[in-house]
């Protein structure tokens, strides 16, 4: 299956730019949505300087809303790696190699794809999070990629090679970022500031060149619809999760390859693997692929990586800078939305000049974050104290979903896992940074900030504009409504559809006062484990 390398259309179709409106009795006119004249605000949208990553031009970014389309493109890319000299690099918080990646093909999973690639001499490397002490997250995937299995021997249980090992594959079970408090009586060793390898990106170099992906989507079965043995859909925690991911082709894709190589070579286990199987391949910088301009920001724990001894917070700086440049509106989707001091400061300043700030968040009972509602309530109330009615917070809650089923996580596709920002329909951020202290300063995170200049074509829409409209069409149940694209064209005017949702809209105003009790704002559980700085 070939990867689509062609840029998307720059001039939107008529149904996006035109709509009919009744202007008098029996009189209908055609309205054309106004468009931007040519302008280049690259210098305004990107923060530059010695501490920030490069701003890379001439790339193509394609976004994916939810996992089905993203997995289809990932499978297509992996299949292009089919000979020696090609590679597949994976960095994941969670990696399951055995669930079906394609809706209409039950035989395609990571195990089959990577086994096939290995048989053709492709170099496969993976950094998969181990979890905090006592966890075994990604154990099966790590052992599969390292071609070992547990077997009882005369000396006890030992890891031994499998009969048909992968040729040039290796995985590192990555626990960097965990710091131990020490030994606690009757408990043992506890992690302090438990750090997570939360980045999610894939780099493939194959017969069509370099193709990279990043965003919120892991190789996790909770991203797709699951069924039991009787064929009944199984829904837990609001799955399949709503998410946003992107594909990067062109010079900016090298930013993710270089990040992988740095992280891989920085790990203590890499020297042995490199000596035995060879170091990661670094391909030539790709040529021009599109019009998008990309900056890849990161969070790196200050104590986890030798190549970044003081840590790195360029992901947070990238987002904060975009918020500071907002003139009309800001839209975000986030899993936790409990904030950080830097985010509160940036949004509080922006609220003085923009028309609205709209956020879509996961209902607190569906999240895995302790004390989520207490801290989220504090953050939302602080924003509303500054912005009042400009601050609009919503949850994914279908109108026909019973409250108990929804709150128990039994309603499909209600968990918001996206970590996305869209500012003024000009600038988008797609990545793994949640709106909390942990993501902005502590864990291992990655995001892509994306901008493109407008053109002198009739109604040129930037990628950020398309993404925002597609997200709103899905959440507001407007995908099939005639003229809905034009109706949502203006990010300020169409905000009314959140305040007065159309029939079938899957959103509901979020109640920050519901069960908003908890511990003190600063306590050991929160500051050391749940949301460390």
What does this entry look like structurally?
The protein has 533 residues and is an alpha+beta fold. It has one domain: Endonuclease, Chain A (2-Layer Sandwich), CATH 3.30.870.10. The protein contains 16 helices and 24 strands. It has a 16-stranded mixed sheet that branches. Strands 1-2 form a two-stranded antiparallel sheet. Helix 8 runs parallel beside helix 9. The longest helix is centred in the last third of the chain and has 16 residues. The radius of gyration is 23 Å and the shape is globular. The two termini are 44 Å apart. The N terminus is likely disordered.
- The name of the CATH architecture is 2-Layer Sandwich
What would you give as the CATH superfamily? Endonuclease Chain A
User: Approximately how much beta-strand content do the residues carry?
Assistant: 25-35%
Largest β sheet strand count, sense and barrel closure? 16 strands, mixed
Distance between the termini: 44 Å
Supply Rg.
Answer: 23 Å
**CATH fold node name:** Endonuclease, Chain A
The total tally of domains equals 1
Q: Overall mean pLDDT score?
A: 89
Structural class: alpha+beta
């Amino acid at each position: 299956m070939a990867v689509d390398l062609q840029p998307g259309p720059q001039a939107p179709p008529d149904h996006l730019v035109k709509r009919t409106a009744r202007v008098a009795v029996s009189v209908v006119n055609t309205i054309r949505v106004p468009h931007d004249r040519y302008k280049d605000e690259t210098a305004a949208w990107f923060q530059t300087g010695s501490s920030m990553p490069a701003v890379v031009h001439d790339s193509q970014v394609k976004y994916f809303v939810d996992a089905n389309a993203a997995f289809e493109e990932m499978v297509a890319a992996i299949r292009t790696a089919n000979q020696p000299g090609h590679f597949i690099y994976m960095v994941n918080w969670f990696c399951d190699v055995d669930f079906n990646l394609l809706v209409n093909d039950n035989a395609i999973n990571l195990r089959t794809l990577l086994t096939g690639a290995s048989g053709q001499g492709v170099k496969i490397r993976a950094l998969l999070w181990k979890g905090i002490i006592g966890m075994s997250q990604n154990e099966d995937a790590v052992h599969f990629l390292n071609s070992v299995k547990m077997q009882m021997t005369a000396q006890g249980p030992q890891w031994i090679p499998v009969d048909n090992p992968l040729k040039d594959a290796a995985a590192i079970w990555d626990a960097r970022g965990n710091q131990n408090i020490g030994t606690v009586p009757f408990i043992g060793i506890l992690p302090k500031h438990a750090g997570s390898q939360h980045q999610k990106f894939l780099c493939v170099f194959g017969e069509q060149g370099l193709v990279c992906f990043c965003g919120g989507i892991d190789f996790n079965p909770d991203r797709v619809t699951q069924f039991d043995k009787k064929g009944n859909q199984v829904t837990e925690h609001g799955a399949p999760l709503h998410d946003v991911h992107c594909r990067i082709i062109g010079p900016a894709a090298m930013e993710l390859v270089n990040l992988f190589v740095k992280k891989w070579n920085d790990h203590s286990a890499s020297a042995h693997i490199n000596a035995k199987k060879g170091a990661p391949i670094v391909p030539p910088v790709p040529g021009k692929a599109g019009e998008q301009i990309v900056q890849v920001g990161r969070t790196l724990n200050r104590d986890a990586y030798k190549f970044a001894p003081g840590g790195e917070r360029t992901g947070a700086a990238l987002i904060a800078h975009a918020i500071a440049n907002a003139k009309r509106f800001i839209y975000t989707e986030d899993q936790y939305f409990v904030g950080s001091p830097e985010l509160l400061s940036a949004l509080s300043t922006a609220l003085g000049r923009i028309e609205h700030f709209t956020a879509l968040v996961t209902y607190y009972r569906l999240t895995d974050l302790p004390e989520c509602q207490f801290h989220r309530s504090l953050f939302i109330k602080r924003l509303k104290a500054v912005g009042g009615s400009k601050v609009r917070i919503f949850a994914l809650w279908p109108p026909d979903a019973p409250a108990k089923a929804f709150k128990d996580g039994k309603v499909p596709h209600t968990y918001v896992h996206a970590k996305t920002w869209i500012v003024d329909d000009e600038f988008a951020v797609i990545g793994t940074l949640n709106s909390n202290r942990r993501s902005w300063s502590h864990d291992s995170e990655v995001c892509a900030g994306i901008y493109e200049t407008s053109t002198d074509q009739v109604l040129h829409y930037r990628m950020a504009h398309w993404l925002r409209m597609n997200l709103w069409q899905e959440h507001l149940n407007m995908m099939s409504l005639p003229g809905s694209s034009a109706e949502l064209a203006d990010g300020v005017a169409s905000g009314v559809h959140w305040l007065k949702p159309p029939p079938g809209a899957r959103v509901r105003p979020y109640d920050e006062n519901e069960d908003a009790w908890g511990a003190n704002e600063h306590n050991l559980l929160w500051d050391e484990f749940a949301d460390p700085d």
